[in-house]
Amino acid sequence: MDAKEFLRRMSLGAREQEAVVRELLPELRRRTRFAAFQAGINAGDRLDDLLQEVCVVLLTKRDDLRTDGSIWPWIGRVVYHKAIDLQRHHARFVQPSALGDDAETDWDPGQHGAGVTPPGSYEPRYEFSDCIRRVFDALEQEPAPRKGSRRTLDLLHFHLTVSDELDDLARFLDCSRHAAAERRSYALKKLRELCARFCGDDHCGLSMTQARQRAS
Amino acid sequence: MTDKETDAFFAALAGKAAPGEPANPAEVFGRAAREELVARQAWDDAFASAPPHEPTEQDAALNERLIGQLRARGLLAQEVSAASRRPAGRSSVWSRWRDAVLGDGWIRPLALAASVAVVSLLVLRPLGDEDMAPALRGGDAAREVLLVPDAAGLQQRLVVDLTAAGATATATQIKLDPPVWRVVVEWPAGADVQRIRKILQDAGLQVPQGQSVEFDVVTRHQ
Q1: What is the span of the domain harbouring residue B207?
Q2: Per the domain annotation, does B101 fall within a domain?
Q3: Contact B88 A22 (CB under 8 A)
Q4: Which of A63, A98, B25, B136 has the least C-beta neighbours within 10 A?
Q5: Which domain holds residue A73?
Q6: Is the alpha carbon torsion for A15, A16, A22, A24 positive or negative?
Q7: DSSP line for A141-202
Q8: Within-domain flag for B37
Q9: Is residue B52 reached through a cis peptide bond, with omega within 30 degrees of 0 on the bond before it?
Q10: Which chain A positions have a beta carbon within 8 Å of B43's beta carbon?
Q11: Contact (CB, 8 A) for A15 and A89
């Protein structure tokens, strides 16, 4: 279902909204169950709590949906945030290595599809404050500064997944090495500004970093 | 902001920070940014590539329970009977009318007005309030209403068949939603009356004595 159709049907009243939720639920459950398993989140019997919170967002905050394409990337981001919130709320962290024998993982690779391998290399930690997540949410919404130019988020992704060499970044940005270094410096500045805007947690390690930096 | 800070941040972002206690604040920030970016990418990949599998009966039961919980929170309509649910992806005229009337959108007043008009046409007129009859009908002839799946098609066929039988048949569209076709049929003395009557009776009309009949054809909601 694309965003336009989703919004049109959701505007038709409570009964149509229920029909939409009924249509989305099976796929939402399947995707959420698998992603939670892969991310090492012990959904277990809390999966339905998670799905309920996601449905609440779909029903009450659909105006946040700003895309013309499929609604699933947006829903995926909603589930991601809700999953982490739930995980933090319960403060129960399960290491991926323990999931294989855990009856509460709510995912059986043998039953739910061949080729599904349990996660091994990726070990997520959700110990930082919400601000860092909100920083990247803001970056995802940020348009390119000029037509054809790269966004800050693109720069970070390139650095993380392709190459950390400045020359490669300059080619990616189609600019000089000096300009690429300037863009990196700007990216860090932008991240810090956003982090300072969103962080209201005195116990956040990143916030303390800012304090330490100011003190120094 | 110094180049050293930027370098430390991007080294940590690339996973090249020295193990152990971070050397400077930018490195802490770089590690946090890396963690978030990796987590997002992993989540997005997993969410988009979940392998297909048929929902189990337990899943279906859990989904029903979840719908009930959302209803209990006041986020969904309180009562939806099983009969009123339609299969996924199917949108009938009836359900669209229902959603328009019961919904909270701008179309609701229009839908209500159209509903009143249709109810007046379909229910009140056949009840035969004689005092109102001249004002409503604009004439003395009793008018029947044919509720059919395809009003436009039927009125067209009737006009063709009746004309072929020697009658004068005219159909006028009244612009309501759904549209109403008002058909007036007259036949002269020399026309094939038996055939005309049979055509009208086959269409479901009670044919009066005389040489004319007037009726409405309306599409019936499925």
Answers
A1: 139-219
A2: no
A3: yes
A4: A63
A5: 3-112
A6: negative
A7: HPPPSSTTPPPHHHHHHHHHHT---HHHHHHHHTS-HHHHHHHHHHHHHHHHHHHHHH---T
A8: yes
A9: no
A10: 35, 38-39, 76, 80, 83
A11: no
Counted across chains A and B, CB pairs separated by less than 8 A come out at: 189
Note whether B80 contacts A59, CB cutoff 8 Å: no
In a domain, B63, yes or no: no
Does A106 map to a domain?
yes
Predicted complex: ipTM over 0.95: no
Q: How far is CA B21 from the centre of its chain?
A: 62
pLDDT reported for residue A209: 53
Question: What pLDDT, on the 0 to 100 scale, is given for residue A42?
Answer: 62
Residues A98 and A136 in one domain: no
Asked if B36's CB is within 8 angstroms of A31's CB, the reply is no
B16 touches chain A (CB under 8 A): yes
**What average pLDDT does range A80-95 have in this prediction?**
66
* Structure confidence by residue, pLDDT tens digits, A163-212: 999 999 999 999 999 999 999 999 999 988 888 887 766 656 665 555 55
Higher pLDDT, B208 or B12: B12
pTM assigned to the model: 0.56
Average pLDDT, chain B: 76
Query: Contact B66/A25, CB-based, under 8 Å?
Result: yes
Cβ-defined contact of A124 to B77 (cutoff 8 Å): no
Counting the structural domains of chain A, the total is: 2
Please report, rounded to a whole number, the percentage of residues in chain B having pLDDT higher than 70: 75
- The answer as to whether B110 is a domain residue is no
